[in-house]
Amino acid sequence: MKLLSIAIPCYNSQDYMEHCIESLLVGGEDVEILIVDDGSKDGTAQIADTYAEKYPTIVKAVHQENGGHGEAVNAGIRNATGLYFKVVDSDDWVNAEAYHKILSVLKELSGGSKVLDMLISNFVYEKEGAKRKKVMKYTGTLPENRIFGWDEARHFRKGQYILMHSVIYRTQLLRECGLELPRHTFYVDNLFVYVPLPYVKNMYYLNVDFYRYFIGREDQSVNEKVMIQRIDQQIRVNKLMVENVDLWKLPNRKLRRYMFNYLEIITVVSTIMLIRSGTKENLEKKRELWKYLKEYDLRLFWHLRKGIMGQAMNLPGKSGRKISVAAYKISQKVVGFN
Fold first, then answer.
1. 44-54 and 17-25 helices, crossing angle to 10°
2. Residue 168 · residue 87 · CB < 8 Å
3. Cα dist. 47→25, 36, 72, 135, 246 in Å?
4. What is the pLDDT of residue 159?
5. Max Cα separation, the chain?
6. Strand 31-38 relative to strand 59-64: parallel, antiparallel, unpaired?
7. Which runs of E-coded beta strand occur in the chain?
8. Where in the chain is CATH 3.90.550.10?
């Protein structure tokens, strides 16, 4: 059994996927690299097969009909033989030194008396043209270099979220929690990191800048114009987050508060994108989203509505929308998407 399975969802990724794969090969035989070709039309499949032939004990090429990012992650989980599981997008890469530290910690903990459910590390926003690289760290919030539970986590600051880039899950935990990401839907990384959290008991935070998250491609899903075009998919993920986890049933108060804050920021992003687009149709969708929240879970609706972000998102009229956009600019700095 491999120590760590890493899935690389690839769709028409021929121009940049090799940089990603090369950065992961540094892990050697402890790692299984699953290149998931999601029905690409370019040279992605051939590149995947070439690496699988060259490194038969490390790389496996998985070919499937196009099902979107979520289905590529699902395929990764289905095919993984590693004890732990990580997703690395094909335009991103990892830092070699941090990678070796992570593998050595996973190796050390895999034989221990406590079962590790989730390892957290830092990620760096590799924003094109930015001189200063923003690093998402969890220092002061999570204990370092030891196993801990939710009770030992301190309050997460606004904008300090555990994203897909920062987590490595125990593979079996992802299967046990029944995680199945929706097909042909963007922004499912939010579900990937959110839905399994109630099953996580033991965590470990390693303060290394491991994952390099590239931001700058015009067609990237976090590009604001692209987000507005795909707003229905963002709303779908938002609703699935609400429906997949009943926050009120979570016994741990700190976990519940963290997950509520995460759901809040996703709802803010959905709402503000609808406002930013400025179309009549999207302003109607904004009303529909909040109506859905009210009807699905009244208590959750008021909890979201009464928060600072919720209030800023629902001010009436043009001047109200201006304040909403100002709140968005703050959340944008905090969240770090472009």
1. 20
2. no
3. 14, 11, 17, 31, 42
4. 76
5. 61
6. parallel
7. 4-10, 31-38, 59-64, 84-87, 93-94, 118-127, 134-136, 147-148, 167-170, 203-215
8. 4-215
Q: What is the dihedral of CA 41, 44, 46, 51, to 10 degrees?
A: -170
Question: What single letter denotes the amino acid at residue 68?
Answer: G
| CA atoms within 13 Å, Cβ hemisphere of 329 | 5
Query: In the chain, count of helices (H) and strands (E)?
Result: 13, 10
DSSP 210-277: EEEEEE--TT-TTSHHHHHHTHHHHHHHHHHHHHH--GGG-S-HHHHHHHHHHHHHHHHHHHHHHHHH
Instruction: Specify the pLDDT at position 224.
Output: 74
Q: Which amino acid is at 198?
A: P
Question: pTM value?
Answer: 0.92
> Which amino acid type is present at position 133?
K
- Both tokens assigned to 92: 């991103």
User: What integer best gives the mean pLDDT of the chain?
Assistant: 90
* Per-residue model confidence as pLDDT tens digits over 229-257: 999 999 999 999 999 999 999 999 999 99
**Arch. (CATH architecture) of 4-215:** Alpha-Beta Complex (3.90)
